[in-house]
Design brief:
- Helix 3 crosses helix 5.
- With about 350 residues, the chain is of the alpha+beta class.
- It has 2 domains: about 130 residues, Gcn5-related N-acetyltransferase (GNAT) (Aminopeptidase); about 190 residues, 3-Layer(aba) Sandwich (Aminopeptidase), CATH 3.40.630.
- Strands 1, 2, 3, 4, 5, 6, 7, 8, 9, 10, 11, 12, 13 and 14 form a 14-stranded mixed β-sheet that branches.
- It contains 12 helices and 14 strands.
């Protein structure tokens, strides 16, 4: 029989790190310290699933605090993550018990909410608990090279090389002509994020129905001090004032923009994407992608630039009783990106 219990982040640290290796090979002490205890929004909460007879830990799950703006107010939300079981215990019963334990947060504070980006199997768990999909995250992709597509269409290697060369030249020319606002000063952020980032979040959050509080402290923790992934931040300023920024990273031939924020202005969005493309032009990168919530207000602008939808993942929001009485999460436009998910 499986039982669940809250974890102690100090005494249970080692067993959480070891259990999470069923989920990710990046699980180690450094990841745990950064992800669970160092966030400026507060410490994570975690739960253990145990085999009752032996006391052996067979699963773990966590919730990570995030500050949000909604309706002009600042509220607390929790993103669910690090949900995993040992292979022999991956069935509906244990999963339901562990997920119910996570959602006890809402019983303790009914003004908050939890959100999750579940796998296909976890969608079924949420449905059994009475929670349907709230929305979707959409992966948008822009090709920067045509080599992969050419290989699927042409089998002759010599013809492939010629077609790829011509296609890449035309694509490079088209990308280079992406017009942007010449009055914007676009540059790489070579220092930690300062107070201007917090001010930008405070000024702009009223343009979006629900958005993460992107304070300087949060951005520095999430991206600048991230021990798992190297990120670069590109800023757009006008007359020295911060107007927006993009955060991007690269893994092999694929690059991705994980955060894109600023004034609700198409030209600023275009300028930031163009700046990322410029940074990639001398790298062997085939695609640039970004994830947006399906209600994200910049979806159409990204399509105009050249991004195309490839696939989606579901999102589930579970509101506390007091929160749900004042906010209809299904009809709220979520300003979410990849960086707003768990790591």
């Amino acid at each position: 029989m499986i039982v669940t219990q809250p974890a102690d982040l100090l005494s249970d640290r080692k067993v959480i790190v070891e259990t999470l290796r069923y989920l990710t090979d990046q699980s180690n002490q450094q990841r745990f310290e950064w992800f669970y205890t160092a966030s400026p929004e507060g410490r994570a909460r975690a739960w253990l699933a145990k085999e009752e007879a032996s006391g052996t830990v067979v699963g773990t799950a966590a919730a990570f605090p995030r500050r949000f703006y909604i309706g002009g107010k600042e509220i607390l939300g929790w993103v669910l993550g690090d949900f995993c079981f040992a292979p022999q215990y991956r069935s509906l019963g244990p999963a339901l018990k562990l997920q119910r334990a996570c959602l006890d947060i809402l019983e303790q504070d009914q003004q908050t909410f939890c959100y999750d980006f579940p796998s296909a199997s976890m969608v079924g768990v949420h449905r059994r608990m009475g929670f349907n999909t709230t929305g979707k995250m959409v992966r948008l992709v822009m090709p920067l090279r045509v080599d992969g597509k050419v290989k699927t269409m042409i089998k002759n290697p010599a013809v492939q090389r010629v077609a790829s060369s011509v296609g890449n030249a035309f694509l490079k020319l088209w990308l280079s002509k992406m017009q942007t606002d010449k009055n914007l000063e676009v540059a790489v952020q070579n220092t930690s994020c300062g107070e201007e980032f917090t001010l930008l979040a405070e000024e702009q959050h009223r343009n979006f129905e629900l958005s993460l509080k992107r304070s300087a402290e949060y951005l520095n923790w999430r991206y600048v001090k991230n021990p798992l992934t190297m990120y670069e931040i590109i800023t757009a300023r006008r007359h020295g004032k911060l107007k927006g920024y993009a955060v991007w990273t690269r893994a092999g031939e694929a690059a991705s923009v994980v955060d894109l924020f600023g004034e609700n202005n198409r030209e600023i969005v275009k300028a930031l994407i163009a700046a990322v493309i410029v940074r990639l032009k001398n790298l062997d990168v085939a695609t640039l992608s970004l994830w947006l919530s399906d209600s994200h207000p910049w979806m159409s602008w990204c399509s105009e630039i050249g991004f195309r939808a490839r696939d989606t993942v579901p999102m589930v929001c579970v509101p506390g009783a007091a929160f749900s009485s004042s906010v209809d999460v299904r009809n709220t436009k979520w300003f979410l990106m990849q960086g707003d998910r768990d790591s």
